[in-house]
Specification:
It is built from 17 helices and no strands. The protein has helices spanning 6-27, 29-40, 45-74, 79-97, 106-129, 131-134, 140-170, 178-195, 198-203, 216-229, 235-264, 269-297, 299-318, 323-351, 357-386, 389-394, 397-407. It has a single domain (6-203, 223-413), classed as Growth Hormone, Chain: A. By secondary structure, it is an all-alpha fold. The mean pLDDT is 83. It is a multi-pass membrane protein. Pfam families: ATG22 (PF11700). InterPro entries: Atg22-like, ATG22/LtaA_families, MFS_dom, MFS_trans_sf. It is found in: Cell membrane.
Length: 423
């Protein structure tokens, strides 16, 4: 990859590999497949959306609880890749496992989906932490943004293949059922994810670490406790995490609930898949653009831009009526989705002590994942109480506003001295 080292390129390519899961399983095919199964079983549209939100909340709650301690253990030499491999294997196994759930068993689908979510999000905790091992602070915004950009464009390939199979099955061109077509998409996702993860396993290694010592688990708990006791030394880190907690909640909720929301609005499955494909294509250059603009205007200012766009998205969502409206909404999301995630990752990575990157990315995970509990619950509860999914999306405005206000008090990484390592 021109302009990037072998380590940077290999790290970036994992986004290319794993983003197939993000669009096909988290956002597009699985939610539609699940909604169809739930509807067939007599579950109402608003209730099935709520159950999906609750499932996401449960999975993220589990990972949020174990994230910091696993991250602290992973700071020891050689442990980061080991934990990454464990969660990667869990994710890829149960992503493929979705294809083998009996037709119509919507509850079992949610159980297998929970395990796939744990694997995917868990592996990303350690993948994100590897950014300190593959590049420098000065290049982090560019490398992180290129990762998201490559993820968006790379994921369109298995997505196109999956859409083609589903549409051809729907139009009877392929002599297979819609159920089998969707299950084929799950297998394609697992294969794509595994195949293009090979460079990550071969070329990315842990360079910043703590030397191993006896009773590593016990010592990890002690280091974690020391972090909390000396939290004032990490004020900038935790202030950023608090801001991140609120605004990333809204981002993640819109990503994971968008397809279910579109279904509730009466948008056809085919239109939803096409819209999501277009969103990936548009998000690719905008993610890279955010990285380049951050070098000129700073990452913090570009985060403000992304949050502002999302506030408008939530307000606009309340007034959605047509497929055209949903198209406009999706394109607005595409302009900022990758940028806000990429710059959040690199902004945080610049603040952390490098040898303790996994521990702090464990906190990054726990703040992000606990936030991901609140958003889907808000959407789910509001949808059930009002019978209107648009109200749930509109309620997310407050999360973005709070996040933006707190972010104003976070110093730029360049103005903040390196946080002390924990030993």
């Amino acid at each position: 990859m021109k302009g990037f080292t072998k380590e940077e390129s290999s790290w970036i390519r994992y986004d290319w590999a794993s983003s197939a899961y993000s669009i096909i399983i988290s956002t597009a095919v699985f939610p539609l497949f699940y909604k169809a199964s739930a509807t067939e079983a007599g579950v109402s549209l608003s209730n099935s959306t709520a159950y999906l939100g609750y499932t996401i909340a449960i999975a993220t709650f589990i990972l949020a609880l174990i994230g910091p301690i696993l991250g602290t253990i992973a700071d020891y030499q050689g442990m980061k890749k080991r934990f990454f491999t464990i969660f990667f294997t869990l994710g890829i196994t149960f992503t493929a496992g979705l294809a083998f759930v009996p037709s119509g068993n919507w509850l079992m689908l949610l159980v297998v989906y929970t395990l796939a979510v744990l694997g995917s999000t868990g592996s990303n905790v350690f993948y994100d932490a590897f950014i300190v091992d593959v590049t420098t602070d000065k290049r982090m915004d560019r490398v992180s943004a290129r990762g998201y950009g490559m993820g968006y464009i790379g994921s369109t390939i298995p997505f196109i293949i999956s859409i083609a199979i589903i549409i051809l099955a729907q139009t009877k061109v392929l002599p297979i059922s819609m159920t089998l077509a969707s299950q084929t998409a799950f297998i394609i996702t697992a294969i794509w994810w595994g195949l293009f993860s090979i460079p990550m396993f071969k070329n990315v290694h842990q360079k910043h670490y703590i030397e191993r010592e006896p009773q590593m688990v016990l010592q990890s708990f002690r280091r974690l406790g020391k972090t909390f006791k000396e939290i004032r030394k990490y004020r900038a880190l935790f202030l950023f995490l608090l801001a991140y907690f609120f605004y990333i909640d809204g981002v993640g909720t819109i990503i994971t609930m968008s397809t279910a929301y579109g279904t509730d609005l009466g948008i056809s499955s085919t239109n939803l898949l096409i819209i999501l494909f277009a969103t990936q294509v548009v998000a690719w250059p905008f993610a890279i653009l955010f990285g380049k603009l951050s070098e000129r205007f700073t990452g913090k200012k570009m985060l403000y831009v992304g949050i502002t766009v999302y506030i408008f998205v939530c307000i606009y969502a309340y007034f959605l009526e047509t497929t055209t409206d949903f198209w406009i909404l999706a394109m607005l999301v595409a302009t900022s989705q990758g940028g806000i995630q990429a710059l959040s990752r690199s902004y945080f990575a610049k603040l952390v002590p490098k040898a303790n990157a996994n521990e702090f990315f464990g906190f990054y995970n726990i703040f992000g994942k606990f936030a991901s509990i609140m958003g889907p619950l808000m959407v789910g509860l509001t949808a059930q109480l009002t019978g209107n999914s648009s109200m749930g999306v509109f309620s997310l405005v407050i999360l973005f506003v709070i996040g933006m206000v707190i972010l104003a008090f976070v110093p730029e990484p360049e103005q903040q001295p390196q946080a002390p390592e924990i030993v």
